[in-house]
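dude i think i finally got it to work??
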Amino acid sequence: YREELGVVESLSKASQRLHWQTEGLPADQLSLENGVILDHAIRFPLVIDPSGDAIAFMMKKYEGEKIQKTSFLDKAFMKTLAGAVRFGTALLVENVEHIDPILNPLLNRELQRTGGRTLVRIGNEEIDYSPKFKIILSTKNPAVQLTPDVCSRVTLINFSVTPASLESQSLSQIIRIEKPELEIKRASLLKLQGEQNVKLRELEDLMLSKISACEGSIL
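look at this
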């Protein structure tokens, strides 16, 4: 048992966390834990993001997957959804206060395999389903009322500010405004620390690999 090991350290690498921060994820503990959940979630995520920072982070994170923003009120929602499902792109649905029943087959993974094709029903159509498809539901309402049924079909990720995360983010903002040169130095040191941690992990992995490849006793 090691007290310094937590969820973030066990389920992510220092290089990953450093990359998340370059993509705009705040460096406080809550945000890092949510970043880990987002990476390891099996069910599609529903993100509570009052500040909008998480949405900006996800738009950057999934930029390579041609992520699009939409909402249930968008007149072209069905067309956008069908295109994302068929071509395996990412979709961010904003302002989700309830789940549109049209998403039920996707959230429940109600897939049908016919003649080598994987299909899912969207409305009255059977659409080819790409395994690369990703949908992220989001709301800025921290008091959103979600039914147990909805919570059981999504991975809930809450970016609502806690006292600890507020303190960390406020301190960073104050330093950035009052002493920008100090904030630049701080960011540089954090980046260097992250890079050193990455190098240390690589050396540990290399050492373990060489030890496991040794034959006979190493004592």
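The chain has a mean pLDDT of 85.
im so relieved honestly
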